[in-house]
Specification:
mainly beta; Thrombin, subunit H; Pdz3 Domain; 6 helices; Immunoglobulin-like; globular
Length: 422
């Protein structure tokens, strides 16, 4: 009898686990982010199965209209339809048996942004905040002794030197002038390291090589390259490009922006990508009379700033609505990019995989180039195509960010939503 009872308990537990597993599979809302967007004038439906129920905050129901119906009586499923009737926010809770809170949601009713998709090649010139330390070395002083004031001061590769003795450092030449003015006197150095500012001290020494006073650092104050414009906002003149940040080639760190420009670029050559060797779009750009915008931010999700009014007027393309991350589906899409004759072209791709991201990340989807013309020209995704806008179902959904080195036909894309949040 005892064995029968034990077997009965075990069977009950197994059944409970099976039912719970099926319930988790049926209730995909459990895996939704806590912030859910619904576009004003549109609706979103959720199928929720027993033993869960969805309850809305009745006090704020003016921004949303909710209705429910039994969609599957056999599996005890209920369909909830939420209509966004006005911009604003309301709250919802998923409750076990309608009583025990399991998860809370903020439901935001938003207007769907409209942006002009880019796809044209741009030249990027970025000036760092202060100067960036790219290497720390020893110096042989005029007495033949080897020293490194930078090491003794605790300076590190990747530091941004902002000020010396309270003087803002403008560029490489400026730092040489400041040190030669103070000579062997100890200087206070203001450094930015990982978004924190610290102060240290160092005593310059006179170099045997050229008699200049030095700290034993190699520094950089600017960088430049070719990329692709992702979008323009006609309402605010804001732009976004690249889909990833600009990092220093030596340190691998994001460059801290003091000022920067984007310019029209002319494609001069395309090197095809091959397995193990990423290709590259090469181009030229000139700053004189060719600046189209000013960079105000460089972060992990791209470069951002304001385009000039005369450049915005040149765009004849109509704005497209954006697609939110949960609307992106695996399947066909296309990109806009420039690889030839400085003409923006449309090329077919396939979205191979989408990531259900709860927070902003670069690698939101895996894409594959399927367009024969683009494959013939570039071999797939090449350097310089970063930022090429991805369009699906007539909505701007993201941008190309990276290439797979071992398979240049594939790469990563970022959701446009993450770029706009920056």
């Amino acid at each position: 009898m005892h064995k029968i009872k034990s077997f009965g308990k075990l069977l009950t537990l197994v059944l409970i686990f099976i039912l719970f597993g099926l319930s988790l599979k049926s209730n995909k809302i459990l895996f939704y982010p806590s912030n859910i967007k619904i576009v004003k004038g549109e609706n979103k439906s959720f199928d929720i199965a027993f033993p869960f129920y969805l309850t809305l905050n009745q006090d704020e129901e003016s921004v949303i209209e909710a209705s429910s119906s039994s969609s599957d009586s056999i599996n005890f499923k209920k369909s909830y339809l939420l209509n966004g009737i006005d911009t604003g926010e309301t709250k919802a809770q998923l409750r076990l048996l309608g009583l025990i809170p399991v998860k809370s949601y903020s439901i935001n009713i938003v207007n769907r942004p409209e942006l002009i998709p880019g796809g044209n090649a741009i030249g990027v010139r970025l000036n760092t905040k202060g100067v960036l330390v790219v290497a720390i070395t020893d110096i042989i002083d005029i007495n033949g002794q080897r020293k490194s004031p930078a090491k003794e001061a605790g300076l590190k590769v990747g530091d941004n030197i902002l000020e010396i003795n309270g003087i803002k450092v403008a560029d490489v030449e400026h730092i040489v002038k400041i040190l030669n003015d103070v000579k062997e006197k100890t200087v206070k150095i203001l450094v930015q390291r990982n978004k924190e500012e610290i102060v240290t001290e160092a005593k310059p020494i006179q170099s045997m090589q050229d008699n200049n006073f030095r700290l034993g650092i190699w520094v950089r104050d600017k960088t430049s390259g070719i990329g692709t414009l992702t979008y323009l906002d006609k309402e605010t003149n804001e732009f976004g490009a690249l889909g990833h940040g600009i990092v220093d080639a030596d340190t691998g760190k994001l460059l801290s922006v003091d000022k920067g420009k984007i310019m029209n670029a002319k494609i001069s050559k395309v090197e095809q990508g091959k397995k193990g060797t990423p290709g590259e779009i090469r181009g030229v750009f000139y700053e004189a009379n060719n600046i189209i915008g000013d960079i105000s931010a460089n972060n992990s999700f791209g470069i951002f700033g304001i385009v000039r009014e005369d450049y915005l007027k040149l765009f004849k393309s109509k704005p497209l609505q954006i697609g939110f991350k949960e609307e992106v589906t695996e399947g066909k899409a296309y990109i806009l990019t420039t690889v030839d004759n400085n003409v923006q072209e449309k090329f077919e791709i396939e979205i191979v995989k989408t990531q259900p991201q709860l927070k902003a990340e670069q690698k939101s989807m895996i894409i594959k180039i399927t367009d024969k013309n683009l494959l013939d020209k570039t071999g797939g995704i090449v350097q310089g195509m970063s930022g090429s806008p991805i369009i699906q179902n007539n909505k701007l959904i993201g941008a190309i960010t990276h290439v797979f080195v071992n398979d240049p036909t594939k790469g990563y894309g970022i959701y446009i939503e993450w770029m706009l949040e920056q």
